[in-house]
Amino acid sequence: MENRVFDKVSVENLRRDLFYLCRDPLSFRTVSYTIPWHQKNSLEEADDFIAGEMRKYASCVELIPNKVQPFRCDSSKPLHHWYSAPLESDPWYDAHNIAVTLPGSEYPDEIIQLVSHKDSMSWINSPGAHDNAVGAVANMELVRVLSTLRLQRTVRVLFCNEEHSPWHSKTYANAASQRGDRIVAVMNQDSLCGKSDETSASGIKANVSAYSTPEGKALADFIVSEAARYEIPICATAVFKERVNDDDGSFIKAGYPDTVHNLGSLPYGDSQYHLAGDIPERVDLINLQLAVKLILASILDIDEQGASAFRNT
């Protein structure tokens, strides 16, 4: 792989998409908020933006309908965890998963699966920049770059909803399992470059590849090794994640253990996690760009070598 492919990862694209999704025109991405005088709720508007952008680069962009409820807010719980399960009587809303497919030319049945949730908190008005506009815009930029290359294996990208109930990454992953999809690797981008205030002030650029299975550890270690291999100036580490949760957990539970969660720190250090202060101005865009380059390198080497790229490390 030529290193100049990394030059295609645009910090300008990342900045533009990030601010579109959580500053202007969209302050939030939830079914329970509609901009005054607009006809669609803000999550629908986010879906329109993401799907519209992806259709510029991929011929297969599918909107998969599902139903969700906003979480309730319980301020008696610890500060960062005010979400509370909806009541059965709470209203249901129409929502969508967005699935993008870039078909492979040589081994189309082998799938590299990327995931990110695109919604913001449904129980509090938060822009959700680190959680998880950064993951959504990272995967959008990966589609742009990958669409310019001849892929041997199929790359699929799922933009799902996690800050509403239920999580439809579970539905998607279970459907893939029932079809017998050959997913060779899953990478969930959720809270990329989310770090503590101290780490951010130090200027450290970081990426953690968190794993919950032995197979995931091999993939996480491989991603870490890619930073050195391609001289990407990011502090890349692999960390065990005890809880099988988040959207990566949906795929592990569906029978796909070769799965990691890419984020900025673990334990998660962002002081504005699940708070209204999770604004786009706090995002370290250079860190985000470097994390996208690292994930891109990993995708392309797996595309070239298959699962043996990391299973033999």
CATH architecture: 3-Layer(aba) Sandwich
Q: Class, according to the CATH hierarchy? A: Alpha Beta
What is the end-to-end distance?
19 Å
Oligomer: single chain
Estimate percent helicity. Answer: 25-40%
User: Main beta sheet: strand number and arrangement?
Assistant: 9 strands, mixed
Q: Which strands sit side by side, in order, in the main sheet?
A: 7-1-4-6-5-8-11-9-10
Structural class: alpha/beta
Query: What is the H/E order?
Result: HHEEEEEHEEHEHEHEHEHH
Q: Quick check: average pLDDT?
A: 97
Radius of gyration: 18 Å
Count of helix runs: 9
Q: How many DSSP-defined strands?
A: 11
The proportion of residues in beta strands is 15-25%
Poorly predicted spans: none
**What is the number of independent domains?**
1
| CATH topology value | Aminopeptidase
CATH superfamily assignment? Zn peptidases
Q: Can you give a write-up of this model?
A:
The protein is of the alpha/beta class and 313 residues long. The protein has a single domain (3-311), classed as Aminopeptidase, CATH 3.40.630.10. Helix content is 35%, strand content 23%. It has nine helices and eleven strands. The protein has helices spanning 11-22, 42-54, 129-146, 168-179, 197-202, 214-229, 246-253, 285-305, 308-311; strands spanning 60-70, 72-73, 83-84, 93-102, 107-117, 153-160, 164-165, 182-189, 206-211, 235-240, 259-263. The strands form two sheets. Strands 7-1-4-6-5-8-11-9-10 form a nine-stranded mixed sheet, with helices on both faces. Strands 2-3 form a two-stranded antiparallel sheet. It starts with 10 loop residues before the first helix and ends with a helix.
